[in-house]
Structures are given as C-alpha cells and as structure tokens.
Amino acid sequence: MKSETIESEDKADSDMDYCPMDSDHESPVVYNSSPNLSRMKKNEEAASSLRVTAVQILVTLGASLSMLSPGMALGFSAVALPQLTVEGIPNKIDPFNENIASWFASISNIATPVGCLLSAWTLERVGRKFTLVLLNVPCMVGWVFLATSNTLWGLFVGRICTGLAIGLASAVTNVYLAEVVKPAMRGFLICWNSISIALGILIVYILGSALPWRYAAWAGAVPALLAFVAAIIMPDSPSWLLSRSKASQAERSLIALRGGGGAAVRAEFEELVRAQEQRAKGPKAGWRNLSRSFRKPEFWKPLLILNVFFAFQQFSGIYVVIFYAVDVVQEAGVTMDKYLATVFIGVARLIATGGVSIAMRRYGRRPMGIISGVGMTFCMVLLGAHLYFTEGMTPTPLSWWPAVAVIGYIFTSTIGFLTLPWVMVGEVFPSELRGVGGGLTTCFAYLIGFAVLKAYPGMQHMLNAYGVFLVYGIVSFLATIFVIIWLPETHGKTLAQVEEYFAGPARRQNNSPPVMALSKPLLVMSAPVKDADKDQIA
To answer: What are the pLDDT digits (tens) for 92-106?
Structure first.
C-alpha cells in the first residue's frame, strides 16, 4: 500500500465525504467537512499547526510517563543491593549473600516475559489504551511490597510485580505512539519512551545514593499512579479501533489526536480506513492463527532480525551495568565514590537518550547502531585490557581510565543498542501483528536478560572482571557486524513500505521503494524527511 498524496484543502472539500459503516451504529457515519476550511487564513493555519504539535507532545508525555516507574524498577537493584548486602532486612534475615543478591537483581526478569506475552494479548483484545492503564497496577503494587515488606519473599514479590509491569510496558508504549503520533514526528517522539526510562533510572540512582532504599521504593509508586490517571484520559489508537469495526470512535480519536478536524485529518482517516479494508481482505492473523502468521515473510523476517538484535543487546552487558551499576563501578576499578559514579552513569544515559531522539530523526537507525557498536567495543576491550595489565599494581596507572570507559560505554550503548530495538518494535511488524510480534520479541529479550543477569556473579568468579568486560567487548564487535550486514534501515520509509519490503517483491508497488537490501553491508545515510511525506517514519 503506497502513501496517498494529500491534496489541497480546496479540492478535498469538493470531494464526497467517506461514509464507512460503524458496527456501533445502524446508519453510516458521515464525516462532514466545512466549506470554509479551504479559506482558512495563514495565521489560523499556523495556530492549527501549533495546536497539533502541542497535542502530539502531550500524548507522548502521557504515554512516556508509563515508562518512568518501570525505569526506576530497572535501576532499583543497583542501589538497593549494596545496602541489603551490608544490612539485610532488620531483625528478619541475615545480610544478603551473593546468591540471594543475584536472585534479587534478576528475578524481575522472570516475570517480565510474562508481562510481554500478556501485553501481546491485551494489545489486540482490549486495545492500546487499556494496556497502558493496566501496566501501572502491578507497578504500584510492586513498589508498595518493596517499601513495606520485612521478609525476603515479600521483596521478591515486589520485584516480580515490577518486572511484570516492565514487560507490559515494553511493547505497548512504542506500539501506541507508532500508531497515534503524526508520521513526520514519529522518529523524534517515539524515543521519549527511552528518555523516560533513562530518567527513571537516574532518579532512582540519585535517591538510592542519598536515602535508604525503602524511600526510593516509595518514590517509585508516585509516577505509576500519575501514569495510571493519564492513561485513562488519553485517546485510544484509531488503527486499533478501526480493526474492531469502531469507525466513529476511531474518527473521534483521530480528531482528538490531531487537535481538531479538517481536510487533512479526513484524508488521513480515509487512508487508515483503506489500509484496514486491505488487511481485512487477507487471511486472519494474530494469536489464534499464529502458525499462519509465521508463514508470512512480513512477520517472520522482522521477528528473526529483531530477536537477534535483542540477543546481542543483552549479551553485550548493557542491562548488567544498569542492574549492577554500583558493583560494576567497583569491579571496573573506578576510584571515585561508587554512588556518585552511578549518578554520573545515569546522567550520561539520560543525555545520550535525549541526543539520540534528535539524531535518529536526521540520520536513521543503522548509522546510530554502527556508531554505538563501535563505541561499546572500544570501551569494553580497552577497559578489560587495562584491568588485565594493571592487576596487582599500586598505584594503578591511568586510574582515570576505568571511569571514562564505563561512562563512555553507557553513552555509546544508549545512542544505539539500548534504544534502537525498542524503537523498531513499533515499526517493523504489520499492523495486525504488531502486538503479537512485539510481545514475542520482548519476551525473548527478557528471558535472555534473566540468564545474563543471573550469570554475572558466576562470570566474575570464572573470568575475573577483565574477562567479563572483554567478553562484552567481543559481543559488541559481533553485534556491530550484524547491524552493518543485516539490520534494515526504516528511516524515511512508511510503515506500508516496511511491510512490503519484508513481504517480498510480489507485494511491492512500483512507487514504494524497498527499505534496504538486507544483504548489502553499506552505511547509507537517509535523507531528512520532508514535511510533505505525511506517512513516513521519521
């Protein structure tokens, strides 16, 4: 399906209004247009544009708020474990040993895949909006357990609940924003989810460095409550509503998301209707027809690519540094205060995430991924080599290097490998399989993440600190090769073009160019997106 060129408002107003049948009404829903719309003054058009931008930003902030508390949950073990290892739970258990500590850090990743699979079901059955509402419930419950429990199992329940919320949040926010944000702003705004996660990690690092861990737990419940309220008042995805034959609700939702109606909004809605009609003509997809979905190249090809990408992300140690930040700082030989260094790590991650939201709009996905992989490889290999050759030396030469290497690794990983897979979850799957594909992919990612986090203490004993960092450096190098050769560039392509590319030549239209041949290991800088490209991925 190619992108339709939106005609001028004068011509659009003279055309017959589109009147699809809504399952909620016996009569057709008529989309009225104002005859005066084509005679809007320029200052009114500018105000309308500002209103649209404001609405898009508010919707993005509302959706991204649902990622703030899960982000705090990701970083919570890094600041809680050092205190629990020394103090334990007063009058209840002995201080945490290494085995209990590894379970505390990784047990949330057992529940996270369950949340991913649950979100894949709720995304399709009850919608994007309700899933946003739902994910904040276990998040609040988990933080209350962590803040109040005086038993080890109570703490584990809290970690499991927050892990469930992380899984629910992993796909829904990207899928929701991919469907409701204007295409020209998508690449910029969809990264705000990652900014929210990075901000949550930084907040919990700061709180954990200054306050007891229980106070940090109480603070984690606050953004979850705010996000719960925000999700209730946000409009649902028009694409999902159309897939449920709720045309009138879909129209109202789109008008709300665009800050009002008009010829352009009507044309966008008609395009959504035509896309849904096109999908309805094909075989049914989703959980009930999962085996049939796996036979569709537009599903299994991006599923394979994204799962490999996530595997490299996890095995390169990105989440180990998040979950064990204080321990990693000590193992790396950083001489400054370990909590202060952790805060610097959080700041570097937040700055990098904000920068990538801008850079990705201009340069695309692959260049950012390649730069990220090269930087991660450089930092980890040199850090491992430094620790190996300086082992036992006092004083240690180049004592500043471990801090630079760790912060550099955090910065470079964030501009690509930490954020790119999550962004692409909302882009590469067909609309009717976006929830299923996102749920399966994020489930797989967190299962690998659990194994990597649980294995970290054992790897330290087996390989020493320098060996662990060298392994992460080697994985980062292999991941860079994967990005160069196999990762497609989705920047500047419509969602339909991405789907047509993976579907194969038979589905491509002459005026819908393919994304980029997967077999070509070329670094292609995508041209900036033009304002006229109404349906493009930014």
So the answer is: 656 677 788 888 888
